[in-house]
Amino acid sequence: MVFDIRDEGVAFMRLRSNLGRHFILFAGMSAVGWMTVSGPLASTYAADIFYGDTGGNFNSALSWTGGVVPGVNDKAIFNTGDQALAIDFTQNHTVQVLDLRDAGVTFDLNGFTFEGTSFNSLLVGNSSATTSLATFLSSAPGGTVITDNITIAAPLGGTADMVVTGANFALTQNTFRSLTIGNNFNGGSASLSISNQATFTTGSGTTTVGSAGSISVASNALFNVNGNILVNGGTIAGLSGNNFSWAAGRTMTIQNGGSVSSFSPTFNTPAGAAIIVTGSGSSVSGAGNFFQLSNGSTFDVNNGGSMSKFIFINDTSQLTVDGPGSTLVGFGVRDNSIVTLTNGATASSSFIDVGGGGAGTSTLNILSGSTVNKTATSAFDISDSSSESNGVVNIDGGGSSLSTVNAIIGSTSGSTGTLNLDNGGTYNASGTTTLNATGSININGGSALLGTFVDNGGTLNFTSGTFGHNGNVTIGVG
Question: DSSP secondary-structure letter at 454?
């Protein structure tokens, strides 16, 4: 027995059991602490009741060992081995915990509601079984499962999978509850699949996808997430603007090689969202359409993470790519938003655009040895239309550079486009740089190789550094 006293000022008592270690939070007149007790304690459930060896009716006593249907204070356990079971409901039912350990249990709610009321009320793979598979559906409209915390996790060498499917079925977690798929402590794989118009709604606790875990969301399903998301080495696939809803003000962290993919059709971030992609191998990706960072949200890519999905940064949002190995592909920054690459980060794409729409001033910062490479012949645009937001590109510091084939800076009127080259920052155009009437290039210790230079009435200010061209120079009106 180990006593571990911590902290002060809490005046309640709680008993919790977790993997054979039990924690008691106790309070006195002036002290509060944790007592950690190793070893088994009595079950907090009235009974652990095991399902029989054949499929049938969940609500029938004949289906259960001992002829007793688990009630509101009991744990219902499915642990019959590798055989598949088909379980039907004929009425609403409530237990404390549903513990699923079998190779294939299919629950047909038949339009009824099943509820688990314990803190950890739905467990899939909580055994030494090699394979655990639980499928939830409903043959009639209105089939619903309501739970607290859900854990889908397998022991070393095992698998734990949960499927929710069908337009008649919805699973809803209670407020504050969490969802965990897989873990980072053993090699067992775990998955959650949401398909065929089914709806899965999380609580406001964290959705965690561990190193061997995965979530897949079909294009015709719906995944509503009300809390933070932690992709800790696992994967989430299939998200889009049609099947993924995320509560405002939450954080998504992708780390330890985790990945989130798809976002097609286009996904718009909710207000105040924060997305962090950190560490080598961690990524956001997907083909088709684009990702919209909107509503004052932030997106940080650092420590070798990557954002390889095309992204628009809108509505005073900010995207930062930081550090060697941290990468970004195509992007457009507009509507008073900011993109910053710093400390050796890189971006390379056939499309990059600054000030392409909205209002205010949109900014691209290329700092501290970072590089941006616009690969296609279409122009790198800095506010090339009078109806766009103003655009500013700052290239600052030795090794910081922007390379493009062609570029258009500014418009004939209205929106302004500005390119600033400071302290060794470099700009290199292999094709043509067009400087329109509302455009300006300011060189203050930087370097500009303009390619063929067409000046349509813009402004070039040179304080120090170098500039040149490798083609014709055309001076227009101005």
Answer: E
| 3-state percent breakdown (helix, strand, coil) of the chain, nearest 5 | 0, 50, 45
Neighbours of 433 (CB within 10 A): 28
The residues near 195 (Cβ < 8 Å, ≥ 6 apart) are: 163, 164, 165, 216, 218, 220, 221
- CB-CB contact of 180 with 151 (8 Å): yes
Integer Cα distance of 475 and 478 in angstroms: 8
Q: Which residue has the tokens 């590109």?
A: 393
Taking only the tens place, the pLDDT of each residue in 153-206 is 988 778 999 999 999 999 999 999 999 999 766 668 999 999 999 999 999 999
Dist CA 396 CA 44 (whole Å): 63
If you search the block for the tokens 């513990």, which residue do you land on? 99
Phi and psi at residue 65, in whole multiples of 5°? -60, 130
Tokens of 158: 């095992």
Radius of gyration for the alpha carbons in the chain, expressed in angstroms and rounded: 29
| Residue 114 one-letter amino acid | F
List the one residue out of 20, 25, 24 whose CA is nearest residue 40: 20
- 397 and 368 in contact (C-beta within 8 Å)? yes
Q: How buried is residue 286: exposed, middle or buried, by Cβ count under 10 Å (0-12/13-18/19+)? A: buried
Integer Cα distance of 25 and 36 in angstroms: 9
Whether pTM exceeds 0.90:
no
CB atoms within 10 A of CB 109: 27
- Parallel, antiparallel, or unpaired for β 21-27 and 14-18? antiparallel
